[in-house]
Amino acid sequence: xxxSAIKEKLSRFIFPNQCRYCHAQxxxxxxxxxxxxLHLVDPATRCPRCFxxxxxxxxxxxxxxxxxxxxxxxxxxxxxxxxxAKGLLDQFSLGDEPYLAKTLAAFLYLQFEALGxxxxxxxxxxxxxxxxxxxxxxxxxxxxxxxxxxxxxxxVRSLFKKSSPTLPQRALVLKxxxxxxxxxxxxxxxxxxxxxxxxxxxxxxxxxxTAQALAAQLRTHHPKRTYVLTFCRG
Length: 234
What we know:
By secondary structure, the protein is an alpha/beta fold. The protein folds into 2 domains: about 1-35, no CATH class; about 40-234, Rossmann fold, CATH 3.40.50. It has 9 helices and 6 strands; from the N terminus they run αααβααβααβαββαβ. Helix 5 (about 100-115) packs across helix 7 (about 140-150). The radius of gyration is 18 Å and the shape is globular. The relative contact order is 0.16.
């Protein structure tokens, strides 16, 4: 474990009641000031296919999605990857604080309600390799999916497994992220996919390589629709 990670864990042990962004004393994950800085992204200002803010004029989608649409039908996030939202997500995904899944899932639920999407038949998540899960101790996408499913009252399905270990996407350069393909994931259960609505829940959407790879696997079995909802859009 890196020294910086050890230092961070010791800091949380000595000062457990700190804001995850500004480190002010508080009994909640974020202090009142940082909470006031959180504003859900307005879906009307984003491309509905990749949630990019690079839409112009009367276009409903960004230039990239206009030329090349992804496998998922719609993508959205609660926040951009910055400020208190970034601090909260980093502590959840990288800082060994799995209990923050409940807080993140609550914001996901609020954004889901604002989006007006159809209710899914199933919630799905991004699988991890055994080595990755052992290193972190938990699968952030799975924890988010479980907490979100409790709020929306829809079941979580374990549809995929990782076919081979890969580096975390945050550790990859942009070109390597885009090269992530369907071959990295295996659909282990293709029952009850046709004409069903799926919602993939994850912590962070950057290039969308992982989400689109999973959506591509689903598409071969003709789902009715595939949504992707993440806490942050990078």
